[in-house]
């Protein structure tokens, strides 16, 4: 050993010690350390959320005609492999091509098929009866139509000795006969976005789309969008895609969060920006797409001022809630002393000088220049302008029929003020452009019913109403069609949800949700609910006592306010903390009839 | 393809195919050569170097050990991962089954809607999609085979698990591994863990994709492989270092021994430290010292002997001179003796005295060679002249014996730096030998020269030499026929001296012979005195003679 190495730790021992330390450190799960924080995953309801599929069974050889029909009807609820299993129930020559977007007859419940006739030894006729709830057209539009239906199937025994369907009912040739449960399982409500007449705001067009598998969902969605609006919104909205535009190749290709939408050359004449806006808003319903690219005939195109790869969250200026949808705004209400007041703090701050206003259910114009409201009995519509001046509200409309009342006025973003004059069995819709007298809308789809509330959506195309259907207040949505020559048609009202039994007041919270005061089956008093216009399940809002709620107001990104009456006092309730859906209601603002301007 | 078509195709593409074939063959040949060369070099290194062998063995053995260890570790990691997954999966299944039972308990929904309600709740509990899939079956439902979440196909649940679950009592849980298949065009099946249980009429399966686990295992495996390779290389490097420590002294010892063998007796190894190698060095040095002593002693002894022979020769010369004078006198007066026997004795004395003198001269010459005292008195001479002169000298003797000397001389001069006296002595010796053993046959003397060397070969056709005698003829006092009287022939030292003379020139003297075919002696000398001789211009075996045995003789003689 040389003298130099003497007295040092032998390197082998050193290495062994270091290795031992390393191994001891690596082999353990950490028991301490710094706090790691992250953002919550966005859990908005997405089209591609987990879903459930029905697994069909193949026809058994021992089954009789009734069982074959029952099996066929059950199997037709499965979209796997283009209805391969359901096709096995058919005789070879029977043509039945439901495709990816079939028309659907929705039954409430399927009764067991009945064998009605066995003509020859190898022939049979089977009847199926049921209560139809409605139909879904092949464009995805649902239309409620309650009736009792009866369809017949022809069956024959094949050479192999098994029963097969040879004749389908007429309206089954290209469609399906599904129960409500089947539809809920196999079809999914999605929104397609089209431009409102102002060419700026996008309007969601809710349709039912079969979920075949999540991989083809983007292509299906885009194909549906290219087909244009459904019959419900047809004419009321416009699409930026030139007619004949189709999706090229295999459809939408998704590669690492980036989707590529390749359109045929017809799209070259359309506006890239407007098409991009429609596609962006439609594709953002799919959680796996974060960015996307637009191609026309294989060439990547980019909208002005943007990269070719655009995020799906772009195009906020075309939001259905309007550009100012996300801007913080002031809530108004009638203070205890009768003045129109702002409700920002705990104490209402009066806005107008002069004498107190004697009006209820105020509505402030989006430009904050005018306010409208109802007279004390609800039979007059009053307006006051300007807001801050010492003015007295003047009568704009007075009920001309006996016992008629007005619904609280509703301002559209275009400055139109809407209100419905209604009696117990008739109603009339009024619209007023500022500076002009009110005009009765010539085509009003609910003229034969009592209307309790009328609210026009921020996109100016849709309107939500509470309408009395056979004594039950029901929430429905209609569309406003502006025909040539200024003719306005408000109609095509469809029920949104059957979950709420009694609706009292409603307001658009945002383009996809209504805030409704009403009662669910087990409620004993009115409570605020959020009702998606897609028809999905409603959710309750907030916890705690609300007293006796009377009015509700909401705006995108703003807290929902409920005007209520507790122990003889009018107070406005607000959730604290405001962002939490189940935050408790705190009723401490002494005011009534809260409202947002936009 | 028919035969005709094949033939046509061959004709069309024949040339290019042939060119390609040739090219390929050449390339393959080159490759084979390169590989073979590398293998040979590698094998040579393997045989020659302990270090290479030890490093290779270390590499092999440590690679095997690391591989076994890695496999074992992977097995452990994989089973631990799977255990955890299975445990979590069974807990999940328990929860799901409890949910199914609760939902069955309050059967608010009726008919077909019930299953949907149950699976919807289970789906809602499955969290973000991709974590697991659920497949539920209502055994009492004839018209559907249950419900599955997302794109899961019902075949994903293997038949064996279904059978197991179907026949198992309520409450038992089973699991297996399988492939999860999905609906949709290009969805690939992936490996998964499938747990299943039964609750009443419901069969519930949870299917967990093992993609993440596979990824983890792949990563771990890659890391292990990387670490293993590094470890094996490290071990090889360590082995290389360690063997270097051992091999370098051994190599030094080998070099020392080589030098010692080459005659550098003062060569010694350096002794460092006190370890085994130091002991080896010390032993080596001791051995070298002993050898040096012994060789020194032997040298001294042989010196003494040589000196003794030289001294004896010198000492004998003085009395011999006297005896010579007396003998000469007796010889001249032999006719005067009355008794003819005395005259005959005088003649005998004279002849033996001559012989004794020449013997003494040869002894002196050879002792001079032994003592290293022989010096070369070189001058540039034509070998042809030397040969002619020597042949002229022995012409008489040859004629007496009935032999004819045939000369084969080149046309141009064969100049070489040689000692005239010594070369003449060699030639005379060879010619006399040839005449004496030539049995009266022709004696052929050939001379040849090339760039570096000249050679003289003397060929006789006498009795020849037996195998092994080609070397022995140069031994001192060696005789082809021991029975032959010493009266004939030379002193028995002539060829020894000749060889010493040739070697003094840096040349060779070699003999070839075959019984019955005669013999040939060849002298090869460098043209420049002292230059190294690489070859001879003349063959040792005469052309036309011998087949296998002469070759043997040549090999023997060449050593």
From TrEMBL, chain A:
Top-down, what is the taxonomic lineage of the species of origin?
Bacteria, Bacillati, Actinomycetota, Actinomycetes, Streptosporangiales
Tell me where in this chain the GerMN domain is found: 218-305
What InterPro entries does the database record attribute to this sequence? Answer: GerMN (IPR019606), LpqB_C (IPR018910), LpqB_N (IPR059026)
Q: Which organism is it from?
A: Actinomadura yumaensis
Q: Region Disordered: start and end of each range?
A: 345-379
Name of the protein this chain belongs to:
LpqB family beta-propeller domain-containing protein
